[in-house]
Amino acid sequence: MGTNREDDGIEVDRIAAGVFLSKGICDERIDRQLKGISTYMKMKLEEFAATIPPELKEHSGAVFYSGRGAFETQSSVYILGLNPGGDPASQADHTVERHTQRVLQSVEKDWSEYRDEVWSEGKEAGTSGMQPRVLHLLNGLGLNPGTVPASNVVFVRSSREKDIKKDFETYAELCWPFHKKVIDSLHINTIICLGRTAGGWVREQLEVSTQIAVCVEDNKRKWRSRAYRREDGLIIIEATHPSIADWTAPATDPLPMIKKVLAT
């Protein structure tokens, strides 16, 4: 579970959800997808696991938020949170290595952390925190959570984003080769990032800076979700973070903007 919080201290004007696309983008995206199909080679989950930094394996945390059904099949969408949430002290034995081995050996092929795991005692799987909000987004896009690759920019657990702030760059750089391999190997066309910290880091690594769409929450805080596009058609969605923003509420739901972007 990601822990990123939005900065609500910036005043913004209300902007209706919209998409601003120049001529030729659709053709470029199609060309990129066709190229991906022609060069795609089936990957094994173990090959991605082999890129996990050894120095992080004994840290409390997790890498895979979906299983073989997502990481061994070509995908158009990749979900990236900031880092796993929870308490690294009380969950010290829930290490990156332990979680990885569980995903490799035990969970179902179409397993999803967002749909199939219990995050709060006394609640059913998929019903705690931001789980139903991520599921709302995926369902709205017509995607099965078990077939969409999902992870976090940083694999190390923290209770709050501020708790890893001083080490974020180091951790993110260590974890990036894993994400780059996923993006390249599965020919990802759209990366949906949960929160601005995750989105900003990913956009910097992939050199994606052209904003093509924005929507603003219909409330006093006016948090924004944005979509960016690279010249070759790669899209990065920098959404409000669902640990705070309730995506299931119409006033704070980025789904309509995201659907428009992906349909264009």
Description:
33% of the residues lie in helices and 12% in strands. The chain is of the alpha/beta class and 264 residues long. A hairpin with a 5-residue loop joins strand 6 (224-229) and strand 7 (235-239). It has a single domain, classed as Uracil-DNA Glycosylase, subunit E. The model is unreliable at 1-26 and 33-40 (pLDDT under 50). It has a 7-stranded mixed sheet with strand order 1-5-6-7-4-2-3, sandwiched between helices.
Query: What is the mean pLDDT?
Result: 88
Q: Which architecture would the CATH scheme give at its second level? A: 3-Layer(aba) Sandwich
Note the run of SSEs as H and E. EHHHEHHHEHEHEEEH
Principal-axes shape call? globular
What is the CA-CA span between the terminal residues? 30 Å
CATH topology type: Uracil-DNA Glycosylase, subunit E
- The counted number of beta strands is 7
Total DSSP helices:
9
Which percent range describes the beta-strand content? 5-15%
Helical residue percent?
A: 25-40%
Structural class per helix/strand content? alpha/beta
Overall number of domains = 1
| Biggest sheet record | 7 strands, mixed
Strand order of the largest sheet: 1-5-6-7-4-2-3
